[in-house]
Design a protein that fits this description.
Order of helices and strands: HHHHHHH
Strand content: under 5%
Structural class: mainly alpha
Number of helices: 7
Number of strands: 0
Largest sheet: none
């Protein structure tokens, strides 16, 4: 009986945690790039002891990057929705997998779909995307190096490394959970 109560309590606490995380993410999505930049720079000002001039420059830089990301994200969402709609239509009209593949190939040849649309659905990063992302990071670091003092920049890079390590850890744990779910689903179908 104790084991059942413990398991139930654990499940409820985990589900409550996921619910709170979704609420936080929903609030974050409602912020504008400017608001996000202001908050990020204020945190940075506390950590790095920034001057007013540095704060203004970094706020402008973060705002510019945020706006670019928002525009790119909106564009990608729009393209992904259009691709999914086209693929769903083709799938609905298809009789089986072979027919689906034939229809997709025909749609690519006719120009209705692009190969990138199919790749996007598989979530693979191509060379150009990865290269542009790295170029943007190099450019960002160069700008930050100009704004910050050497001591501040050293501390900033340490903070960035920690931030990326946390994000990477979080993503790997999410991927592990997804793969476990997929394995469970696969076992049930056999």
């Amino acid at each position: 009986m104790k084991k059942i109560a413990f398991a139930l309590a654990f499940i409820l606490s985990v589900s409550a945690g996921f619910s709170q995380q979704r609420k936080r993410m929903a609030k974050a999505d409602k912020m504008t790039p400017e608001q996000r930049a202001i908050l990020a720079v204020k945190k940075m000002a506390l950590q790095l002891d920034l001057t007013k001039d540095q704060t203004k420059k970094i706020t402008a830089l973060y705002t510019e990057i945020g706006i670019q990301r928002k525009v790119k994200g909106d564009q990608m969402k729009k393209e992904a929705l259009a691709s999914r709609t086209k693929l769903a239509k083709i799938k609905k009209e298809s009789k089986d997998k072979a027919n689906f593949k034939q229809r997709i190939e025909k749609a690519i040849k006719s120009g209705e779909l692009k190969k990138e649309d199919i790749k996007r659905m598989r979530r693979r990063v191509d060379f150009d995307t990865a290269n542009n992302a790295l170029d943007n990071r190099i450019e960002f670091q160069a700008k930050m190096k100009k704004i910050l003092s050497p001591e501040q920049y050293k501390k900033f890079t340490k903070l960035q490394k920690r931030k990326f390590a946390k994000a990477k850890k979080r993503m790997s744990s999410k991927n592990k959970m997804k793969s476990k779910k997929m394995k469970k689903r696969g076992k049930g179908r056999r």
